[in-house]
């Protein structure tokens, strides 16, 4: 009876497979080690770049930008936002508070219309907001079409201490809608710091009226103060999240004496 071979064909096959598997495993570990070595692959460099260049984005959005698959696209997205309301209600102060040092003085001198730009990084993409303010006096009516055409959001603003300016938002809304029916409508009550000095029953009456107006305009309502930087950034964050379907939600606040947010 012939002696069985020391290396059975099946055993030889198993050995070959094991060697191939070992080689593949080493290759796999090698590629992992390469990722952590000083010679980083391109993708890792991009992540580092994206996380350092995100300067003006709020924390929730910064977390989003760290996802590697979203960091390669450095395209610039230009979007227009317009801002309407009576004069002296705090529109320019609100914009200056948001835009800060990036305000383009050169573009802001045209009578009846102001234009300010702000660029921010969201999920690895550069977003440039052109924010158009219609100044609110009788002459500025001619600029409503220029400001509203192509806007992705329209901010209807009023002074919380002046009911007349709240009533006028309906007129601003009707005029804006002639030129733009798709923009996100936001109703903003300004000078919240002055408003909270009013008697509480008056605050309650104005807040209720503002909520009814917001419902009628199908708008989200914010009370804000440029002087104390209340809800200024939050309003733009809300618009950005809504436009780009970002996982960020605002909380409703209906407490009298606090800056109301209603939707
Ligand atoms: N108390 C208070 N005053 C404000 C606020 N925002 C603006 N103002 C004042 O309201 C006046 C008109 O502001 P401005 O921004 O020029 O209004 P615009 O005509 O609507 O652009 C100025 O005297 C501002 O200092 C605010 O948040 N609180
Ligand atoms: Mg102004």
TrEMBL record:
Cross-referenced Gene3D superfamilies: P-loop containing nucleotide triphosphate hydrolases
Q: Where is the signal peptide?
A: none
Q: What is this protein called?
A: Septum-promoting GTP-binding protein 1
Instruction: Name the InterPro entries for this protein.
Output: P-loop_NTPase (IPR027417), Small_GTPase (IPR001806), Small_GTPase_Tem1/Spg1 (IPR017231)
PANTHER family in the record: PTHR47978
Q: What SMART domains has UniProt attached to this entry? A: RAB
Which spans are transmembrane here? none
Domain of life of the organism encoding this protein? Eukaryota
Alphabetical UniProt keywords: Nucleotide-binding
Which lineage?
Answer: Eukaryota, Viridiplantae, Streptophyta, Embryophyta, Tracheophyta
Give this protein's Gene Ontology molecular function annotations.
GTP binding; GTPase activity
